[in-house]
Amino acid sequence: MSRASVGYDGRPILSGLSLRLDMEDRIALLGANGNGKSTLVKLLAGRLEPISGTVERNPRLKVGYFAQHQAEELRLDENAIDHMSRALPKATPPAVRAQLARFGLDVDRAETPVRDLSGGEKARLLLALATRDAPQLLLLDEPTNHLDLDARDALIRHSPPLKARSY
Length: 167
Description:
By secondary structure, the protein is of the alpha+beta class. The protein has 6 helices and 5 strands, in the order E-E-H-E-E-H-H-H-H-E-H. The chain folds into 2 domains: 1-57, no CATH class; 62-167, Rossmann fold, CATH 3.40.50.
């Protein structure tokens, strides 16, 4: 990213962004509400385009994205299997169920309409969807707001280990 500006309706929220992410990087964004953390994450995820400057991504880069308000995008009348099958159209039914099971959505919960899932179960479904392609870059925008203990455990178990690094 070089001298990028990003925002909404042509008005920049963040400007002068220059950074590089490498495979071994593990980064946490900390700051008060309203400082542009979610906007930066949307830029990194490709959900927003820069207003100015450049953002270059390796064309083979797989990005997983979990947003704090993404549950609103789920189809309430469908179940977890429906969502995952649509996200993984070439996957076999056992592979679809296995991805859901990794995040604690067992047979019963995977077949339950989304409207009847708890907030934590919806968050687990979103994490399963975000990680379905084994992304090299996993962006989590305030994930713990709606994660229950099982979802937090699944996130820890299926995340690569952190490596100590000095700067």
